[in-house]
Protein 1
Amino acid sequence: MEDTIELEECPICRGAGMLMHEGGWSVQVECVDCSAHTVYVEYEDDDEKREAERAVAHLWNIGKVISSERGE
Ligand SMILES: [Zn+2]
């Protein structure tokens, strides 16, 4: 199965990205080092969950992340 979701290094600090599920209905990728993160993508069932994971992984891998550091 082509099911493995590959995450690149953090586009901000080169740390490790992790899939983080929130409340069983949404997922984002977050950096374990600098807390940069993608937007949350919501899902309602297992199919959507997989698509949501792919979606946030894609955002992460192309560098569409939000840095939680505010300025400076
Ligand atoms: Zn980072």
Protein 2
Amino acid sequence: MTPRPTSFPPLRGIVPPYLLRHLAHTSEPQASAALDTLTRDQRQRRYRAAGRGPSARTLMPAPEAPSRLISSAGNVERLPGKKVRDEGQPATGDAAVDEAYDGFGATWALFHDVFGRNSIDGSGMRLLGTVHYGEAYQNAFWNGTRMVFGDGDGEIFGRFTASLDVIGHELTHGVVEHTAALVYSGQSGALNESLADVFGILVAQYRLRQTATEADWLIGGDLLLPGVKGVGLRNMLNPGTAYDDPRLGKDPQPATMADYVQTTADNGGVHYNSGIPNRAFALVATTLGGYAWERAGQIWYDALTGAKIGRDCDFATFAALTQAAATARFGKDSADARAVADAWQTVGVTGASGSAKGTGPGDTPLAVGVERSGGIAGRTVSRTATLAELPKSERRAWQGLLTGDTLPKLAADARNYPDTFVYHVTCAEVVYEVPELSLPARLKKLLDQFLGGAR
Ligand SMILES: [Zn+2]
């Protein structure tokens, strides 16, 4: 019973069961009722544990509800930050806090009402978020425990809570981790990214009660600030067309397998190649029409949570899983099964044109180099320089890196989390890959300083 908008468009035709469940929720008084229920639920559990009170069998099951906690990092890069809004508490007036709180509620509602899933883990897991992370921080990510949002730099990106689909995207990384647990690299990583976009966009469409043909299919449509030549981070229906801006570059997403990007950046191009399965989903949804979560979304959810998906699932395997899911749910000769087959063929995952073309890794830099890639925007910034070009203080720090064992150690221990930045540091012609969260603060500062104007 999250607080929900009360101004939905009027319902048309037969009211489906998930909407009835939803209406049952919204008919109760909003925030305070949610808090009451949670308190009651906890009290009941305590009673049961103590062997007092009515038996579990005679109790009415408490309705499921989200449990959210939003913290603020106060513009430093430290987690979790200070608690600012707990479940059931009123709006704070801080846009980032309230957008995260409402966005978590909307995401919980999609998974619960449509797919019958209670939170990220299916067992009511708390939804933890931190906003105001870092200074002018241009990203949002999932760190395995919580969703983290920066305020943006104020020139290109606004605050990362501004787009509901981005909040849904981050939370879906949690769902993927608790279901298929797709390896965050190469094709399984791009699938992980794509699924986060798919359910992220469904969160927004469900909240707006928008049909597949009414929807804009843009991820991050509210993130880019005025003056940036672009409409969002990604266009799921037309990958590669979201932006073309002197500061941001051109949207690098391929729309078919013929343009599949082979790269060592971005965990093997996870934010690039996700365009291919994204487009397959958007094609299925727009071909079928109506609400995308009812049919296309259900097929994708079945494939994601089915028994057959492996951690290293590639595009072709996922295509086969969605085909099987469409057949199982809607029948072999259904429009749904046909739409799924056609979509995967159009994007070249199945059929004749399914060959991958490589662009190869970039040139080896001269002396030292830093490349920062990944992030939900999938944007790569890089710079190479000779030591002589660097200011004295920086040069000394780099000389320490060239001779010490810091980088090899960090690269060996590193673990990547969805949407966190990845740093490739080139020293003496060896490239070390270190995820942002593994970097000690002082080293991260040195690398960001080196990238300097490239930001
Ligand atoms: Zn992501």
Protein 3
Amino acid sequence: MRLLDTLWKALDERLELAPLVEFATHKEVPQHRHSWAYYFGGLTLFFFAVQVATGILLLLYYRPTAEAAFESVQFIVTRVPFGWLVRSVHSWSANLMILAAFVHMFSVYLLGSYAKPRELTWWSGFLLLGLAMGFGFSGYLLPWNELSFFATRIGTDMTSKVPLAGPWLLTFLRGGEEVTGATLTRFFGFHVAVLPMLSAGLLGLHLGLIQRQGMHVPGHLAEEARTRKPLRFLPNFVLREGVVWLFGLAVLAALAAFFPWELGNKADPFASAPAGIKPEWYFLFMFEALKLIPATVLGIEGELIGLGAFAVGGLVWFLVPVLDRASAHGRRSRLFLALGWGVLAYLVSFTVLSFLGAFQ
Ligand code: HEM
């Protein structure tokens, strides 16, 4: 104990830590009937931490070339002790992280937490979700198997439809005209260097803003929050969040152990694409909607119209804190509440219907 006291005193003298501890011990989290929503951002953070830890372990053996990538993953899952488990945890946790981020986004949206003064928190969160999907897309190609190869070919092909910049974007992503070893090396660079660096910066901003501004209490729950005793952040909220993390870990461990992530067959660029190929579940809402649009509408390519509509939709979602007039007064309007439920209904129904094979 004396050693710890001395260490603490030495650090405090140099870094003035006492005010930080004072802040953390006095910080409180409001309580009301929807305070369960405050745990989902933390759960997303937990899966992100799992991704970093397991990703570093995979890096010890993974080789990012078209000749060696598949074989190196095969080596990891068959020869490296617990390699199959690490890979399975990494793949499952990526999916759970994106799921948790979506639940988090819709819960903060429906509670109106994007309203003034939390616009920057909303924008940084939106970009973080974009990066998380980028992690998923770039990581999917890395094992260099059949499914990932053809899904990447279809996914990157979409970018060529972008007016003017399309062909340039396609070459930038693929490192050439086709999906080749150059694409794999690029995706590897995005996955382990560019995206982690951007995420670390944005995550710091997102979490810093939340610390600075405290948790949002929706207007209609303000009275309830006033009458209920707030939870102390340290130790009570942190301990409860810990229970949520343990639950997340249990689900992750069960999925990874009982349903090990498949590797499939090595990609063969000269083979024809397997029938019924689909992207990861979090892109299905876009993929299936694009398939429903006729090939040409009024002389314009259907896919272009679809992609344009998604770009506008994404921009509206991003700009919600400025488009919703009530946001300037710290509230969320009924119109935007309806929009949130509408978007959620669309995402869930298209994803579920796609799994049920309704769009064949
Ligand atoms: C992808 C990684 C993300 C991580 C790790 C993360 C993490 C967190 C954490 C720990 C909190 C505080 C606890 C809570 O309210 O749940 C929070 C709050 C918040 N997040 Fe995120 N978040 C992420 C993505 C998003 C997304 C996609 C959005 C929306 C577009 C978003 C918007 C917000 C907002 C507005 C708050 C403030 C909530 C309040 O004050 O009540 N976040 N985030």
Protein 4
Amino acid sequence: MEELAINGGPKTRTRPLPSRRDIGAEELKEIIDVIWSGQLNRVGGTKVIAFEREFANLYGVKHAIASTSGTAAIHVAFGAINPEPCSEIITGPISDIGSVIPILYQNCIPIFADIELGTYGLDPDDVERKITDRTVAVLAIHLFGLCGDMDRLSKICKEHGIYLIEDCSQAHLAEYKGRLAGTIGDFGCFSLQQSKQITCGDGGVTITNNDELADRARLFADKAWPRGGADDRGYLFLAMNYRMTELQGAVALAQVRKAKDIVARRRRAGDMLTKLLKEIEGVKPPEVPPGSAHSYWLYPFTIDREVLKVRPEEFARALSAEGIPASVGYIKKPLYLFKVLKEQVTYGSSHCPFDCPRYGRKIEYREGDCPNAERILKEIITIPINEFYTEEDINDIFRAISKVANYYRNRNLQPCSS
Ligand SMILES: Cc1ncc(COP(=O)(O)O)c(C=O)c1O
């Protein structure tokens, strides 16, 4: 049996895996244009407008509204639907807190539905169970770059007359039954933060086909300031300044032109790894349902503990020692167990909106609320992946996972004295 690097054996991979992003001459050219123009604010500039137009074209939708982050992009969608305070919004418990911040900032109550074990998408049955007379929207998170059961979620939302919003922050150009993630619900929201498939450091964009919602979304990202006309500087309602700058827009514009290629390269690498991992007994790569296409923000997999008799943490540590950075859990616990939600640390000492008399209900988030999500966070192992991974890199990852899995599988067959 090959000695593991963690036990002093040779490392499978000695060179670091590629970690750079596809940023270079194209972004520089756009940035230089902006600098020479002297126009850094989007109002009066050309780059953010061009980015919005090209992003909308890429997704085949009518409207794209740029903003300053993925958190802002989700907030823009909520600002557009304009929920009454203390409305409930159902979402998933595994995400960045940026999925939930906008719910709280709209004085709404996040309600967590569990996820399905295969895709990690929202479990439609649990969503349906959690709908009340206060529910206004479902925010579906396409975790790691894969959509869940969007057909059923769309049907449920339509039947109950509530909005479906897609958090595509990790799922640029992911596909579901021939449709692009972000074009299935009423809104698609994307992060352009450094680690995302395309990036401008920090940034966001919200897409929709609904003209009325788009008008309000645009205003919401710009202090509800109608530009031009009789009502110029009208400040029509409470809204944010989420305007993307021309500098961000310049990079985002160059990036959107590369998006298809970047995602195709990530997909080639991720799908190749999935195919290879299927050969390893006790290792379970992501299950991509027929008709779906993953866009691999991170690469998640699990192990069968019955077969490998090792805890995921130990497996991840052994894999990291082989030169393949691996960790368990993505976030360490479901969102509802983080202090901000568990202890309802919101506005001053008020606990609003949870304690708002207008709500009149009591929400307590507890361990056990979403058993699948809690289980997955203890089991899932993630490794980084990006558009620069070559076949050789993928083969090294496969060899390392194979070596670690073989070790633990066979270790358990050794006599006790060995
Ligand atoms: C699923 C998801 N939603 C929302 C966000 C928030 O995006 P940002 O960090 O750009 O605000 C992220 C980013 O990490 C994310 O991964």
